[in-house]
Design a protein that fits this description.
- The protein is 40% helix and 12% strand.
- It is α/β, with parallel strands linked by helices.
- The chain has a single domain, classed as Alpha-Beta Barrel (TIM Barrel).
- It has a six-stranded parallel sheet with strand order 7-8-9-10-11-12. Strands 1-5-6 form a three-stranded parallel sheet. Strands 2-3-4 form a three-stranded antiparallel sheet, with no helix packed on it.
- β2 and β3 form a beta hairpin.
- α6 runs parallel beside α7.
Length: 385
């Protein structure tokens, strides 16, 4: 286990943790008709691991990348990716692949519950535009994660849904919830460019509403066309590491906003939306801006909303925050502390294993009466635990 530190406030709930899937998951859990097209980890001509997706080598998860998927806090990420002796399984950290180990990690960090999301599932959808295969991949994962969590109530599964076929995705959400999933998540893009709020996706909104479970938007790998050409060639983009980091969740912010453009919250008055792994500080500017446009300009007259966007946020939208964000207590005072929760992103490399220190400092900035809500009770209430 990594050197663990303890969350100071009792009752902590991690709103967005991850697991590393077993490499054979899709071969074992996928419907038989798709088994020859299952996701796999292969070794390339240089001895480095890469994903195989639909029988083809991945273009986005290559050259040792799988070994880095559990590299939270790793000081030698470059060697991990370039060294054939360092593998996906070999580099998997304690608690990423085994339920009992994950409980050990939660105990060591004084965390009661963790909501679990996929890892490899964040990678493949950008490279699969076959709706039937996408549905087969998500169903295979959802079967496995519900089984993974079945005997441990402190580990809460969430279903991966693909909007490549909204009717099928709605049925899959219903099936997965029946097996124990407490909600579902979707990627922030669509291969045909369909906005998340578009009526095409109404079957998924209806299913989440009827099942009374949250629907989350989570960052994933995205097709390159979603990034545009503002920064020119890929050679330029590779050098813009800080820009890539802060802009990585732009797709989530954009798709979240389309829910207002299409009046989704009025059409589905009991729908609960959760915004994940995109930070929380931006939501203040975002709501101020769209409130102003809605209330004071002609644009507001063209949007099918009965209320200001911030009104819907205060009622039926939740957002997870990184432990190192310091603006959250002020935003919680403005929009309601009940809307905010925190997440670890364990065991992914874009966060650090020292996050608990940041989290303790952040929680201490809240009024004492709000600390328990932010650290865990908001997540409990959202998922009805």
């Amino acid at each position: 286990m990594h050197e663990a530190h303890r969350v100071a406030e009792s009752g902590a709930v991690d709103a967005d943790g991850h697991i590393l899937e077993p490499p054979t998951l899709w071969e074992e859990y996928i419907d038989p008709a798709f088994r020859d097209r299952a996701l796999r980890i292969r070794v390339d001509e240089n001895g480095l691991e890469e994903l195989e997706i639909d029988g083809r080598r991945s273009q986005m998860s290559r050259r040792g990348f799988p070994a880095t998927l559990g590299a939270m806090g790793a000081p030698d990420l470059a060697d991990m990716q370039k060294n054939p002796e360092r593998t996906y399984l070999g580099e998997s950290p304690y608690g990423a692949m085994d339920p009992s180990e994950r409980i050990d990690v939660l105990d060591a960090e004084n965390i009661d519950i963790a909501f679990l999301y996929t890892t490899v599932g964040l990678l493949w959808e950008a490279e699969v535009d076959d709706p039937e295969l996408s549905q087969a991949y998500t169903k295979a994962y959802n079967r496995w994660i519900c089984e993974f969590c079945a005997d441990e109530p402190r580990l809460v599964p969430t279903a991966h849904l693909s909007l490549s076929d909204p009717v099928a995705a709605a049925k899959e959400l219903e099936r997965a919830v029946g097996e124990g999933a407490k909600g579902g998540y979707v990627a922030p893009f669509h291969h045909r460019g369909v906005p998340l709020g578009h009526p095409d996706n109404n079957p998924v909104f209806a299913a989440a509403q009827d099942l009374d479970v949250p629907l989350a938007i989570h960052p994933t790998f995205e097709p390159q066309w979603t990034k545009g050409t503002r920064m020119g060639t890929w050679e330029h983009v590779k050098q813009l590491r800080l820009l890539a980091s802060v802009a990585a969740s732009d797709g989530v912010r954009h798709q979240f906003t389309t829910l207002f453009d299409y009046g989704v919250f009025d059409a589905f008055p009991r729908l609960k939306i959760l915004v994940l792994e995109s930070g929380g500080g931006w939501i203040g500017y975002w709501l101020d801006r769209i409130d102003a446009v809605y209330s004071h300009t002609f644009i507001g007259e063209r949007v099918p909303l009965r209320n200001k966007p911030s009104d819907y946020f205060r009622e039926r939208i939740w957002i997870s925050c990184d432990p190192d964000e310091r603006t959250i207590p002020a935003l919680a005072e403005r929009f309601g502390v009940e809307r905010f929760m925190w997440a670890s992103d364990f065991p992914h490399a874009d966060h650090t294993s020292e996050y608990v220190h940041d989290l303790n400092e952040l929680v201490a900035m809240f009024p004492e009466a709000d600390r328990r809500k932010f650290i865990g009770d908001n997540a409990r209430a959202l998922f009805q635990l």
